[in-house]
Amino acid sequence: MPSKKEFVRNFIERDRKLLLEDVHKNPEYGEKSNEFKIIADFTEYSPLHIGHRHCMVEAKKKVEDGIFIAVVPGLFERSGRGLPYIMTRHARADAAVAVGADIVVEGPPMGIMGSGQYSLCLAKIFKALDADYIPRGYKPLPGFEKILQRISDGKGVAPKPYKIIDMDTKEVLRTGKLHEDNYVIVSLSRSLTKINFDFKDKFIFVKRIEGVSGTIIREAVLNQDLNSAKEMLPSETIEVLEKEIEANKAPLHNIRDEDGIINIVNNGSEEYLKSLALLDDKTVLSLMEDRPFENISEIEECISRGFSRHFKTRVLSSLEARIDKETVSEYIERYPSVIRVLKYKDKDTLKNFKDNIPLGGLEIWQ
After folding, report:
1. Per-residue pLDDT, 310
2. What is the predicted pLDDT for the residue at 361?
3. Residues 361, 341: contact at Cβ < 8 Å?
4. Cα-flanking dihedrals φ and ψ of residue 282, to 5°?
């Protein structure tokens, strides 16, 4: 049985090849039947907890004849924060279908992109699926309800440093820092507006439930003591986690290809390092001056702060993936060139899904 580090190194190498293949594919669109409503939800499911299940259940209640599609971020298994997921997208897809999703498709490679880039990719996959409804969990905050209403009306709003503005009127709708779930909604509204996707009356906003702690869940998984978080995790998620842990494929949220990162930083040319996604000139010059490095912590100290508090971890993920800026731009331009199905409930549901989305070129990975 390979070690977790070998497992991580292998799937990063596999995903690099997939991305380099995808970037040369052109999306093909055709007719669709419009027989079923498409509910498209983007969620990381790392892991799928009772809050995720609540959002799914509430959306399915509102659209009883809909096909619930979970868009789960895929390539390189790194979150928008640049952090490794607890388990692979294939395992996360297993949990999603077990809890109630009809179809799980692969989402964009979040860890090697800036937040605006992967928000744009999310908007583009919702357009490719021609989503009829987009469920999103949110945290109630003073003044945020009027922003949700504006989005429900199909009006674009955009996040700016410590404020939210109306994209048409430039009116400041709210000031202050946003909760992460609320930021995703606003950012997605901006991206959908940029690609001219009509989202009027398409969002299903679901209030977040209390009592879910990502920190407690991660500690429970890391310590392989899932009972300590059983109130927060559906039994289906626990079953998948236990299976992945037994196969030595979880937990992965503290595992990186450290040897690969250290090697590329110590031996890569200045030109090559500057070409990689997310690496800025200041960071590269600092790396060149201070190398050779013996560990990841030393490398992280040389990475500039950037505009996001997650910038350093995103740069580490970019060093793992080793995809250049130009390729990322081409990838976003064509995205999604293919819809990769990670899991589906049954063959009838898969057929209905194929018939009801305009983008062809499906790949089945179940």
Report:
1. 86
2. 76
3. no
4. -60, -45
d(CA 257, CA 49): 27
Condensed to tens digits (0 to 9), the pLDDT of residues 126-158 reads: 999 999 999 999 999 888 999 999 999 999 999
pLDDT grade for 280, boundaries at 50, 70 and 90:
very high
- What's the rounded Cα separation, in Å, for the pair 109 and 333? 14
DSSP string, 294-305: SSHHHHHHHS--
- 305-334 b/e with 16+ CB inside 10 Å = b? ebeeebbbbbbbbbbbbbbeeebbeebbee
Question: Comparing C-alpha atoms, which of 81, 12, 20, 79 is closest to residue 261?
Answer: 12
The tally of CA atoms less than 13 A away on the side-chain side of residue 24 is: 4
Separation in Å, CA 240 to CA 154, 227, 357: 38, 14, 29
pLDDT of residue 307: 65
Cβ contacts of 1 within 8 Å, gap of 6 or more:
247, 248
What are 83's two structure tokens?
């952090």
Three-state DSSP state, 137: strand
pTM for the structure as a whole: 0.95
Sign of CA dihedral 139, 141, 143, 145: positive
Euclidean distance between CA atoms 124 and 113, whole angstroms: 15
